[in-house]
Every structure is written in C-alpha cells, then in structure tokens.
Amino acid sequence: MSLAVHRVTPEPVPPHARQHMVRMRDGVRLATDVYGVGADADQGEPAPAVLVRLPYDKNSRYAFADRLAERFTARGYVVVVQDVRGKFRSEGRTLGWTGEVDDGYDTLEWITRQPWSDGIVGMFGDSYYGFTQWSAVSSQHPALRAIVPRVTCTTNAPGIAAHDPGSGRQPVWLEGTTYQAQVWTDRDSYEFHVDLTRRPVVAAYEEAFDAIGKRSPGFDLVVGGIPLDAYNGPHPYDARPVPVLHCVGWFDNLNTAHMRDYTELAGRPGWAAVQYLVADATDHENYVLEDAPATPATDHLTDDAALERMLDSYTGPAIEFFDVFLKGTARPDALPRVRWKLGHDGWRTSAVWPPPEATATDLYLARPTAAAGPVPGGTLAPHPSGVPESARWRYDPDDLVPSAAADTFLLLRDHADERPTLDRDDVLVFTHPASDRPLDLAGPVHAVLHVESTAPTFDVFVRLLDLAPDGTARLVLRGCAQADAPGEVEIALGHTGYRVRPGHRLALMVAGSDFPNHLPNSGSLESPWLTTSPKASLQTLRTGPGHPSRLRLTVLPESGDPR
C-alpha cells in the first residue's frame, strides 16, 4: 500500500487584498498581497507598512493573514504579506534559509516606491517569518524601522541539529527534518505520516519523496550535515540596530534559541537600548498554559471564535510597539522593557530579564541509586553529597523513551501527563520536596551532568516537570546534548517564568532517547540515518565530590527558597 500524501495548494486571494507580483533583482517575481489600500492607491495619506514574509500559503486559514491584516489596518497601517521565493504563488527555487536577505531588501525597496507608503516599514511574524525579519535586518535597508520576531531565532534551519542551533552538539531534531520534507520540496506543501520506526530511518522519507515524485533539497542538506549559508550580508547581530520586540513562548520548542538572541543583543552596545521582550506561557502555535489542554471551544486551529480571541493577544503588543517606532504616536518609555507571564500566576513587568531580584540557585542530584526506582526516585538537594555515587540507565533503540508530545509545536494543545514516562525503568528521576509555599522560576535553567557511556556516542535528554499532588507530571522545560566522551555535559533547558504551586514539586528526568522528536542514536560510529541495527548502550551518571551533577534554577526571592 503506497503512502498517502495530501498536497496543499494555494487558497484564493481574499477579495479585500490586492495581489502584486513583485520583481526581485534576478527577475524572479514574488506574490505579494497588500491590505488597507483602496482601489485608487493614489488617494489617501501615505502610511507606514507592516511586512510579513512567509513560506506558508499567505491566503490559508493557518496563516490567517487576512484576519491579521484587519487588526493592523484598523490602526492605520498598510499590511503587505508575501509568499517567499519558491513557495505557493511565488516564483523561484524552493530552498529555505537562503536568499532572504536580498529578497527582503528588494521587497522593502518596492514598498517605499508605492504611493501609499510613507517610507517607513516594520516587520512581524512567527517562526520562519521571524527569520525573514532577521534577514531583512541583515540587508540593512534604511526603511526598516522595527521588527517583531515571534517564537523564532536568527539561525533557525531545523533538522541538522536539535531545536537550539546555538547549544553545541545536539541530537538531530526529527520534527525539523519532517518540516523540511513537507514544506520545502516545491511551491506547494505536503502532508503525510512519516513512519520513523523504519530502519534505516531515511527510508521513511524516501518513501514520501517517491510518492510526491520529487525530493526536498533542504532535506538532503540536513541528512548530509551540510549547513545552509543563511546570510549573504552581515549577521543580524552585526547589522545596523533596529528596535526589536521579542515575543517568546515559555513552552515554545525554540525558546532556548530565541532567548539566546535576546540576551546576546541586550548585552550589545547599540542594540541594548532598543530591545524589548514579551514572554508568555505559550507554545509555538500560540496555545496558552491557562487553557491547557485545549478544548474544542479554545482550540484556535479549528474554532473561529477561539482564533479571534487568540489574535487579539497575538497582535496587541506588536501594534503598541509599532505605534511607538513606526508612527511615533507614543513614547518609547510608555512600553515596559520586559513584560512576562509567571505561569499559574499572571503578568509582570521588569526593566531587565531575568528580573534583577532573581538569583541563581543550584540543586544537586542526590541519592542516585534510588533514581532508577519508582517516583519520587532520587532527590534534588541544596548541597552536594560528600560521598561519590552513581546511577545507570540504559539506551535501548528497540524501546525508545516517548517524547513529551508527538508534535512539540503544539505542546500545550494536549499538555500530556508524563507520569507514565517517569515510571519507566530506563530513565532516572530526581525530585524536590513539596512545600506549602510557591516556588517562582524566573530566568534560565541549566542541567550540569557528569555522564559516561559504553557507546562511542550517546545522547542525554533532560526534562524539568511539575509533579502535582495527584501524581500527574507535566513538562516545564526540556533540553538535550550529544557526547562522545566521559565528562561534564551542560544542557540549556531554556528560560521560563513558572510558579511551582504549593504542594507541587519539581522533577528532573534524565533519559537516553526522545522519540519521535529526535533521531535515535546509532550507538556506534555508523550514521543514525543509515543504520539498520542501532546498538544498545549503558549510561552512567555520577554525583558527589568531583562530579557535582546539578540543576541550576533562577528563582524569585519572595517565593519559597528551594534550598
């Protein structure tokens, strides 16, 4: 039976949008919708524009560009939405993470030459269309005055590494690889189920390409380990600074990478003065912690009323930001530099992130011999043990540890109970005692583990979970690393604002796999893509003197001291 593939083609252009085929410097034309301009474009006052450049059909419900445009045009902005090169109604070669610098510049130049433009442009959007904003920053076009990148990062090509390209060596992120195969094969997109249990794993994708009748060049680069040259201009960090409103989701699978951009730019002269942060308890697809798991009435991917409610909070911060930096109708000091949500509590503001009152606190992994047993397992202790101890966990390619969600872009849509995973005998679990006071996390979280393996290469996955009094466990943060020698491994789990409520406790899980989110390790020097017989291995975690394995939290002082 052949693989079922659904081809996604462009939806009609909305009647209130005017599509233009905008010519780039090499003659390729990009499909570009303009909202907020009447039939006679020469009439009316010129206005600032908000540009969105994306690889997902600009006319689809998923991209909701028409509903997005309604909110911006109501505030006096012209909205310009463009299919990037090689996607949907646009011409050109289909290959993501390349060519966006020049195409961004040329599109900005086209906007400034239109009679409805006052020569001032901002950019907005999520994920890949956050990356196109950073590409436009790299182009250094003078019309670009502000950007609002959401749930994204400056180097966002998925699949070669895990979901944080800046965290050193990591396991391959299979969600990113599947994205390359489904989105970046040709102008259309393709929906199909990838049977990642096949061996070799690459055969599952080959079956899809056979069914489609063509290959994804981006996928072939991923499997070949060949990085894409994202910028043919300066890296955005080194470009002319523009005001940036970083919109981050604490549960986003690009949290760590996006917060690395924010912290890097907030520490750079020139850039620091124009960095703003809005951080919500949301995932990549804008599901919110307070509504998790989603119900039919709160699921904005399927319910129109829920989508309208989501879009109000989605666009509101951007409109306020553009009113300051594009229109000049409000002063910059009217905007909080940092607006962040403490999950299970509410919104707060700060002059910097992390909040100045937050402090770093280490909890040490103790009683490791109990960590492989039933929950509560080992302990997270305020001081390191004075006795060397160790615990082992196995990696079995025939019995892989399940991921927190089959699709982590939609992590909060289900926000599954992970207690069954904690109860497996091939993971280690360390828990912190419950308290009658809340513990408020506000900043970065890292795990520093001393590990070794019987295999020449091995993966370490960690999850920080909220263990409730009823025994359920739900994800707060996660991270991973790949190693090929014994020693200390530091794993960035990302940043969070999260309240551990009274009676709840933190749990740290350590595992050797995370499937289907990540490519299983071969356990040998053989390619994990090509192996038909991956090898099992045994990992060892060491604690105590000389091996202070620990969890580093950032906490607010008014909450319960975890020590």
Overview of the structural elements:
With 563 residues, this protein is α/β, with parallel strands linked by helices. The chain is 19% helix and 29% strand. It has 10 helices and 23 strands. It has helices at residues 65-73, 100-112, 128-139, 174-183, 202-212, 217-223, 255-266, 304-327, 411-414, 419-422, and strands at 6-8, 18-23, 29-35, 47-54, 78-83, 117-126, 144-150, 189-191, 244-249, 275-280, 338-342, 346-350, 359-366, 378-381, 389-395, 428-431, 439-453, 458-467, 473-483, 487-500, 505-511, 537-543, 550-555. Strands 13, 14, 15, 16, 17, 18, 19, 20, 21, 22 and 23 form an 11-stranded mixed beta sheet that branches. Strands 2-3-5-4-6-7-9-10-11-12 form a 10-stranded mixed beta sheet, with helices on both faces. Strands 1-8 form a two-stranded antiparallel sheet. Helix 8 links the parallel strand 10 and strand 11 (338-342). Helix 1 (65-73) packs across helix 8 (304-327) and helix 4 (174-183) packs antiparallel against helix 6. The radius of gyration is 24 Å and the shape is globular. It starts with 5 loop residues before the first strand and ends in an 8-residue tail after the last strand.
Classify the secondary structure makeup into a structural class.
Answer: alpha/beta
Instruction: Give the proportion of residues in helices.
Output: 10-25%
Cα radius of gyration in angstroms:
24 Å
Tell me about the largest β-sheet. Answer: 11 strands, mixed
